[in-house]
Amino acid sequence: MTSGLADGMRERKIWRGRACIGVLLCRCRFSPGVRPLLAAVLLGVLPACGSTPGSRVAVYQNERFEAGETFSRLFDAGVDATCEAARRALLSQGYLLTTVRPDAIAASKHFQPDGEVHVQIAFNVVCAPEGSQGKLATAYVSAIQDRYALKKSSNSASVGVSALGSVSIPLTPSEDSLVKVASETIPAGPFYDRFFALMQRLLAQQVDEQQ
Question: Of 69, 95, 131, 145, which sits most exposed with the smallest number of CB within 10 A?
Answer without folding.
Answer: 131
